[in-house]
Amino acid sequence: MIQPTDRNSADATFLVALSLLPSWTWPRIIDALRQNIAPGEALARVLRRHYRDKPGQRDELIALADAALNRAAAGGLAPVFWQDASYPVALTTIADPPPVLWTRGSVDVLRRPCVAIVGARAASPYGLSVATRLAGDLAAAGLVVVSGMARGVDSAAHRGALDASGPTVAVLGSGVDVIYPPEHAGLAESIASSGALVSELVPGTPPLPLFFPLRNRIISGLSRAVVVIEAGERSGSLITARTALEQGRDVLAVPGNVLSGRNRGAHGLLRDGAKIVESADDILEELGMGTAAPNVSSAALDPVLACLTPGEPSDLDAISERTGLSATRLLARLFELELQGAVTRVGGGRFVRS
Fold first, then answer.
1. 105, 78 in Cβ contact below 8 A?
2. Backbone phi, then psi, for 227, in 5-degree steps?
């Protein structure tokens, strides 16, 4: 098995440096990493192609990366690097996963099947109640609830999962040591105690407006499905929903009051074919989980095991092509096989038969 990247290694510094580059460079970066090109060489290629007129760019990036790693170590924050076996497999399947995922709390919770619940910040009492109930029921069924820790639906979903004694994951639009909104400091502590706060942004990064649309792809990327509650026509939740569809995730929506205007975005999703959600059972059914926690029989898993060879890691695309299963459905089976000890996860989102 590939060993976790040492945060004091050169690879760690190079991966953090890559994460500091602007978003338009990310596709080229991730293509290089998927080809098993060393992080240092990947950084050199990007700089040669796009920063030839800035010879000092490399040294500046390395200094910032070292500072970020030192700040993380001082604050008890854990960076999860692209090559690490602990890097969330679901996230490796999106077009532009971050080279580094900064975490506070339990890294292991990111290995479990997740469902995202997102919606309006200015949510109605009805929307808050629905988010709390759905999150609690999903947590009781063994799923991890993912959201963005914003005001309104997001925070209600986190609290619902916590009230059900389930872990929850908050994806931040800031560094994991910079809590926004500030009144959610207590909520953040509760999330970190049993789940995780995560961000692609280096520690100390302030919550700037441009970061929140970018983090939505991580919310959906970590999740098998996205549930939208009370989204207006211009809601940020619709960005998450669109990203989820692009990533091949299931999108579901909760119907609401047609008079208030705050549900037009969610109702638009329903008109476009999103599954209607009235209870957690609707979500579990859409995921092929019935009304209980995941329990896939070994007979159903035989096709997946049959296409894996001991000692030869395969990535999700290769397994999907061999089995004919979509990435979303395949992930659920691989998670179950991993829990059974039949397969082992290795770096870069690959699996090998045990």
1. no
2. -110, 125
The whole-angstrom separation of Cα 210 and Cα 23 is 11
Split into its structural domains, the chain has a count of 3
Q: Which DSSP string do the residues of 110-139 spell out, in sequence order? A: GGS-EEEEEE-SS--HHHHHHHHHHHHHHH
**Angle, nearest 10°, between helix axes 298-306 and 316-323?**
110
The CATH code of the domain that includes 336 is 1.10.10.10
Do 116 and 260 lie in one domain? The reply is yes
Nearest to 47 by CA among 25, 69, 16: 25
Residue 199: CA atoms inside 13 Å, Cβ hemisphere, count?
28
Q: Which of 343, 261, 337 is nearest to 295 (CA)?
A: 337
User: CA 247 to CA 252: how far, in whole Å?
Assistant: 14
Whether 166 maps to a domain, the answer reads yes
Tell me if 200 sits within 8 A of 172, measured CB to CB.
no
Residue 291 lies in a domain: no
Residue pointed to by tokens 């970066």: 29
**Which tens digits make up the pLDDT trace of 132-148?**
999 999 999 999 999 99
Q: What is the DSSP string of 73-102?
A: HHHT-EEEETTSTTS-HHHHTSSS--SEEE
Question: Tens digits of per-residue pLDDT, 168-207?
Answer: 999 999 999 999 999 999 999 999 999 999 999 999 999 9
| Pair 15, 99: CB distance under 8 Å | yes
Q: Of how many residues is the chain composed?
A: 354
The model's pTM: 0.81
* DSSP, residue by residue, 206-275: ---TTHHHHHHHHHHHT-SEEEEES--TT-HHHHHHHHHHHTT-EEEEE---SSSSTTHHHHHHHHTTPE
Tokens of 22: 């602007």
| Separation of CA 265 from chain center | 23
1 token code pair: 């098995």
Which residues constitute the domain of residue 30? Answer: 10-75
